[in-house]
Each structure stands twice: as C-alpha cells, then as structure tokens.
Amino acid sequence: MWEWLSANWWAIWLIAAAGLALAESLTLDFTLLMLAAGALAAAGVAVFLPGLILVQVVVAVVVSFTLLFVLRPNLLRRVRNAPGYRSSLQRMVGSTGR
C-alpha cells in the first residue's frame, strides 16, 4: 500500500484535503477550509506532474496563503456583517451563569 501511495501523491493530497475540510466543520473559522483548498490544488497538480513533489508543495502553500490572506478576511467580514449574527460575547450578555 505504501508503494502505491508514494507513486500516487494525488491520493495523499485528497486525503489531506478531506481531513482538513472535515476538521473545518468543527471549527467554522475558514482557516482549515483554505488549507484544504490548497491541498486540493496540489492534488490537481499531482495528477499532471506526479513526480514533482516540490512543485506540488509550492502550489499548496501558495494557494493556501493566498486564500488565507485574500479570501478569508472577506468571508469573515461578510459573515460577521450578516443580519442576525451574534458573536460569542454578544450571546453571553444577558444570559444566566451557573
């Protein structure tokens, strides 16, 4: 099995993307989703350039950082400005503590 995985890096990238996307469903902060998109981009590169692992890693890092610093702030701003959004601090105001 290890031989197959070492010859098919696209599968490793897809597993990483799926794991990151699943973990994102627990955090809901868009950070792991951006990393999952980078891993998915690397999987696409791995399909066409299977032997160039360094290129795959560079694509994953560039896509992840671009999405983290360009798309994520815009998404967070839209979510936080949506009608009905309440932060954790706003939810605590007026509630009873135990």
Question: What does this entry look like structurally?
Answer:
By secondary structure, the chain is mostly helical. 78% of the residues lie in helices and 0% in strands. The chain is built from five helices and no strands. The chain is elongated and about 60 Å long.
Quote the beta fraction: under 5%
Helical segment tally? 5
Counting DSSP E segments of at least 2 residues, the number of strands comes to 0
Helical residue percent? over 70%
The average pLDDT score comes to: 87
End-to-end gap: 52 Å
- Biggest sheet overview: none
The stretches of 5 or more residues where confidence is low (pLDDT under 50) are none
Structural class by secondary-structure content:
mainly alpha
User: What overall geometry do the principal axes of the alpha carbons give?
Assistant: elongated
- Using the CA coordinates, give the radius of gyration: 18 Å
Give the topology string: H per helix, E per strand. Answer: HHHHH
